[in-house]
Amino acid sequence: MVLILESAEKFPQFLYDLPGGSAFGLQMLSKRFRLKLELAGADTEAQKHLLNRTNRSFKSEPLTSVGQLKNFLLRMVAKQWYDRERDSYNFVKQIKEQKEITCTYSSDFDDQGIMFWLGTNGKLAEWINPASIGVVKEDQDTEGDGEEDEENDEEEPEDDDMEDEDEEEDTEPDNDDSTRATIADLDGVLTLDDFELVHPIKGRFLKELSSLAARKRALESDDTIDTIAKRRRYDELMLNIGGARCKIDDLGLNFTVNPPSAVFQYKEMELIEGGADMDVTMENVELYVEKCSDYYLNSGIVEQVRAFREGFDRVFPLRSLRSFTPEEVQCLISGEQSPVWNRDDILNYTEPKLGYTRDSPGFLKFVDVMDALTPAERKNFLQFATGCSSLPPGGLANLHPRLTVVRKVESGDGSYPSVNTCVHYLKLPDYSTAEILRERLLTAINEKGFHLN
């Protein structure tokens, strides 16, 4: 919990009225939620008021770790209020004072758990760039659209144990150098970035339309441009699709999507009533993006997702998964997908036998070669030696039976390693140099075949 409280300085703030007014006039600038590890419902009017204002009821499974709580809270707060198109938080427009902001936080305890509060007096309310205090960072692969990567790909707990009822924006704080284009959003709220991963063409197109709508809104709200100049720039707003520029009217779009279905006998689906007869224009492009996003990421897939969830729950109750991150679940099911080991792991968890000992020069050459393998080469070696390209959770230490290395008798530098995959049994000639061992081993592990002795 100390880690959570120490992270509070980086949370965004929110401006709202305190009950009964305030001596400061502008009320309080504050991050808007109270953390409770709930044991029971609120039993005082003050507590009820706080929970009603924040709309946050936070419950945790007993095995939830501090790291899971910390990442959940960071995502919950930043996603709720970050506006990518404005490249700022959506409550900034309410802040009028031009003074340096001061972030503070406090915590308290009661019979229901930990209360968590941070903020400042409302008159110290100049907004500062969130990137300067580490809440977000610019994505170098985008053109200033305010997208951020996830700080962690950890999945939020299920909604009846960790509830987040407010509508959420689709960005998170990021301390990772990876680009969003290579990381799926696993926190339960799908975005166009996620859609682009599974449908690149449609995803990029909808993001381009969203960018066009954002430029349109920015132009309409710019009071420094006179009406004539604004109309001229409005008419010049263009889409950039694969390097080709065009106006949205040239595309001939209407408010339909076309997922053909032989079962239900339709060729298109109207996004709104009468959508087949409504053209997409600059005036309604934002509505079109909104309806398409909802169809592809929510209403259009809700039945399929519900069926998958119910079926999965019958095989593996979802409640039992809540103590794990997505990465941990994947590791439990599929093993280590990027095999990791070092020299000590090989020495400790590999069994040299029948001609080799841990001090044998031939075995030590093998250890050096194994330690220097690339990730792809390691996967190929595991496929060759064990019949599976991944390791169980815990790596070599949990590989059963243990990897056994024996000396291949009557074999010299011209011979190749061979294996009995069922028992993880590697028969390795005693090569004269590590270079020859590496060359022969890589040749063997890249061959695909099954030959009985």
TrEMBL record:
Write the record's keywords in alphabetical order, separated by commas: Transferase, Ubl conjugation pathway
Q: From start to end residue, where is composition biased (Acidic residues)?
A: 140-176
Q: Name one GO biological process term.
A: proteasome-mediated ubiquitin-dependent protein catabolic process
The residues responsible for catalysis, as annotated, are: C422 (glycyl thioester intermediate)
Known catalysed reaction(s)? Answer: S-ubiquitinyl-[E2 ubiquitin-conjugating enzyme]-L-cysteine + [acceptor protein]-L-lysine = [E2 ubiquitin-conjugating enzyme]-L-cysteine + N(6)-ubiquitinyl-[acceptor protein]-L-lysine
Gene Ontology MF term list: ubiquitin protein ligase activity
Gene Ontology CC, one term: nuclear speck
Q: What is its EC number?
A: 2.3.2.26
Which InterPro entries did the record assign? HECT_dom, Hect_E3_ubiquitin_ligase, HECTD1/TRIP12-like
SUPFAM superfamilies in UniProt: Hect, E3 ligase catalytic domain (SSF56204)
Q: Name one Pfam family in it.
A: HECT
Q: Where is this region: Disordered?
A: 134-181
Question: Which pathway, per its entry?
Answer: Protein modification; protein ubiquitination
Q: Does the keyword Transferase apply?
A: yes
User: Which positions fall inside the HECT domain?
Assistant: 268-453
Give the matching PANTHER family.
Answer: E3 UBIQUITIN-PROTEIN LIGASE HECTD1 (PTHR45670:SF1), E3 UBIQUITIN-PROTEIN LIGASE TRIP12 (PTHR45670)
Describe its function. Answer: E3 ubiquitin-protein ligase which accepts ubiquitin from an E2 ubiquitin-conjugating enzyme in the form of a thioester and then directly transfers the ubiquitin to targeted substrates.
Belongs to which family?
A: Belongs to the UPL family. K-HECT subfamily.
What name appears for this protein in its UniProt entry? E3 ubiquitin-protein ligase
